[in-house]
Amino acid sequence: MIVLGIETSAHTIGIGIVENNKILANSKKMFPIKDKGIIPAKVAEFHAQNIHKVIKNALNTANIKITDIDAVSYTKGPGIGSCLRIGQIAAKTISKQFNKQIFPVNHSLAHIEITKTLFNLKDPLVVYLSGGNSQILALKQLPFKHYHIYGETFDIGIGNALDNFARAAKLIPSWGSSVAKIAENGRYIKMPYNVKGMDFNFTGILKYSIELLNKNNISDIAYSFQETMFSMICEASERALFLLNKKELILCGGVAQSKRLQEMMNIISKSHNTKFCVASNEFNADNGAMIAIVGEKMLEQNISYNLNEATIDQKFRIDKCEVKW
Ligand code: FE2
């Protein structure tokens, strides 16, 4: 079976094509972010103008025609409404025009499933970190099989905290990798640290770090800001590992691309005899292959949606999403 997946929840248009869990194509085009972050209307316009080119590119890479696919899947949410809408319209158009099944997919679940598929995992503890989301998750069977949220940010996602700091510090491009680069030679300054059980929050440390700009060395601030937030995530994750006694640990989502965070999570995993898995950057950044992978699982389970059920939901939480496989 061949499934085409469409991802447009934020700044990236991602089109993936999978056949029997094998990724045939994973094409992308990203809205150019410099220093202003994401302006939803502008990003949606970019997606509307470019999505057909990315679909064409993916089909060429996979060496198939659109009529060869069995189903189309797209990101239902969570994400930016105007951006999600472009992917939904593209998916509904393909579904209606070529008479293909359609599957709405939870974006967070897709980040998990692609990592599980790539590493052939069964029941991992999941640390999912992106711009808008920061959650510690694991499968729970009742009242239906779903990813239960054991820990979560009380305020903003860690990726948005890193991006906001980058903008305040006038780093270009204004996102996490620029913070990581400037943090390389930094020294530690004491920062606010806030973990409650397996939950955490980031606005306090973000505000504190921004206030220190122009008063302290920027490398020292960036290093301490990043190191302290990552330590908060590690403490909460380690507590979840103890509680749930999982033998597999996944780090996924855009922020999972951080080498320093990967290093810290690896240390925790080793000390608990847990297998640590993180996908390559291509599959942790937003991508279409992960949406196609979940679409194929839905197709295998004979799940079906009609076009009226193919909606979007900006706040589609992963714990509302039944995992039928
Ligand atoms: Fe994402």
Helices and strands, with pairings:
Layout: E1 2-7, E2 12-19, E3 22-30, H1 40-62, E4 71-77, H2 81-98, E5 101-106, H3 107-119, E6 125-129, E7 134-140, E8 146-152, H4 158-168, H5 176-183, E9 195-196, E10 199-200, H6 203-212, H7 218-244, E11 248-252, H8 259-271, E12 275-278, H9 281-284, H10 288-300
Parallel strand pairs: 1-4, 4-5, 6-11, 11-12
Antiparallel strand pairs: 1-2, 2-3, 6-7, 7-8, 9-10
Helix pairs in contact: 1-2, 3-10, 4-6, 5-7, 6-7, 7-8
Explain what you see.
The protein is of the alpha/beta class. Helices cover 43% and strands 21% of the residues. Strand 4 (71-77), helix 2 (81-98) and strand 5 form a beta-alpha-beta unit. Helix 3 crosses helix 10. The strands form three sheets. The chain has a five-stranded mixed sheet with strand order 3-2-1-4-5, with helices on both faces. The radius of gyration is 20 Å and the shape is globular. It has helices spanning 40-62, 81-98, 107-119, 158-168, 176-183, 203-212, 218-244, 259-271, 281-284, 288-300; strands at residues 2-7, 12-19, 22-30, 71-77, 101-106, 125-129, 134-140, 146-152, 195-196, 199-200, 248-252, 275-278. Fe (ii) ion binds next to helix 3.
